[in-house]
Amino acid sequence: MHNDTFANMGLKPRLLQMIEGKGFEMPTPIQIKSIPPALAGHDVMGQAQTGTGKTAAFGIPMLNKLIPGGGLQGLVVCPTRELAVQVTKEINSLGRGMNLRSLAVYGGQSIELQIRALSRKPELVVGTPGRLMDHMQRGNISLSKLSFLVLDEADEMLDMGFLPDIEKIMEYCPAERQTFLFSATLNEDIRKLGSQFMHDPEIILIESPELTVPLTQQYFLEVSPRYKIETFCRLLDVDQPTVSLVFCRTKRGADALAHSLIARGYDAEALHGDMTQRERDNVMERFRQGNVSILVATDLAARGLDIEMVSHVFNFDIPEDPDSYVHRIGRTGRAGRDGIAITFVEPRQIRQLRIIEQHIGKKIMRRRLPSLKDALESRQESLSKRLLEAAREDLDIYQRMADQFLADNDARTLLAAALKIIAAGEPEMELAELEAGNYDTAHVELPLGRMQGINPRRLVEFLSANTSLTPRQVGDIEIHSNTSYVEVPMYKIDEVYEAFNNFEQNRKNHRSRIGLPRSNRSKRAN
């Protein structure tokens, strides 16, 4: 018997019906290799990244064997609440109509609500290590009847320091059980974990060339650090991605990039570990609803996120290790859709890029820096679409205004002026300036901050209104309690200096000060 179709795997009719109803015609490679041994009762250790169908790879065998009304029989341990919610949602979808209940438990949600839900004795619980341990110690979860244990994204859990919690959870589990472990990589630490808690597991390996999603086109751009934001904005204008996930190395970097993008008029939000759970939930809700099209995140904050329809992944900062690269770009090129992954590489980081290429077994294509002509053509195309869409709306009021304008002015001149206002046309650096690195900038220190109501958008609006600076000429922005730093071209410094001193002379005679680049300010203070 061939096990390369769901119909040939010996699944329960209702489960097979739900699989087919979801449009899953053929199993993915990880499902073909994992489901049969799991159904046969073996432990499974599988190498699989987000987006390869790994949830169904362990969910289908569990759903096929869980007994309705039999108490808690399956436990899935995930590194993050986002992944726990996503796994629960997927398993509920697959198991609809099978009279099985699954529940997600995680920190940040009312534990009392979870206790009430657990009292209804679900057959499957999905949770994060800390909250699972809490419920076990309180006696809310009993694993005495456990048949299936899943460690999902095990490498992430080890990286996040959850090994002690995992070991403690194992102490509550019966010896006679099936254990499934899935990880983006099967390194030495993961194999050691498997040897501790698994019984002669079936090891599922994906060869190196298959590590990254086939439908994802991978590119890199070599660019100087000071021009990364300008280059990134050009890319956004040229590619016009529908939904973008942007990775930064640090929380501070994610905030700074998100602020710069917002100030330039892009719908962006940051997501990182310093945010409260409520703030993170609000950001994700706006992102999923389409109110935010660019999510700027750190690796840690993005762990477990399963977001549909991501057209582009941008590595604004090159990942520090190849495994992180695999995790990052696995967020696009999914469910049969094409995806694009673009990595920014500084000249000194070319060696890091080569290491990533060796790891994934694939050459990453160089992409040329987008030119001013490319950006303008894309903007013109976008502007044409906006105009044509607006022309189909109710324009009675505006048509009367147009009649008045046309009575005294040339139609072509008026249309050109309207287009200029809509497009907010701005002079930009030429490609040669980006490559040559001769567009010198400096940081201006301002005696205004959050306490005075300053935010990135307001700061950029002030500069645009009171100087000849355009939003694209404003670089890094840092807002502190009573101080702000803004990066501007050297030849614009006098204008900025004058604008803020005029503004401040009616206050406490504060003066803005020309600052060195941020990296040098600490040296000056010493």
Description:
With 526 residues, the chain is of the alpha/beta class. The protein has four domains: 6-205, Rossmann fold (3-Layer(aba) Sandwich), CATH 3.40.50.300; 216-370, Rossmann fold (3-Layer(aba) Sandwich); 374-414, no CATH class; 439-504, Ribosomal Protein S8, Chain: A, domain 1 (2-Layer Sandwich), CATH 3.30.1370. The chain is 44% helix and 15% strand. It has 22 helices and 18 strands. It has helices at residues 13-21, 29-39, 54-65, 81-94, 111-118, 129-138, 154-159, 163-172, 188-197, 228-239, 251-263, 277-289, 299-302, 322-329, 350-360, 372-391, 396-408, 411-423, 431-436, 456-466, 493-504, 518-525, and strands spanning 44-47, 74-77, 102-105, 124-127, 148-151, 178-183, 202-204, 216-222, 244-248, 268-271, 294-298, 312-315, 339-345, 365-366, 441-446, 477-479, 484-489, 513-515. The protein has a seven-stranded parallel sheet with strand order 3-4-2-5-6-1-7, with helices on both faces. Helix 10 (228-239) crosses helix 16. The longest helix is centred in the C-terminal third of the chain and has 20 residues, at 372-391. 37% of the residues are buried.
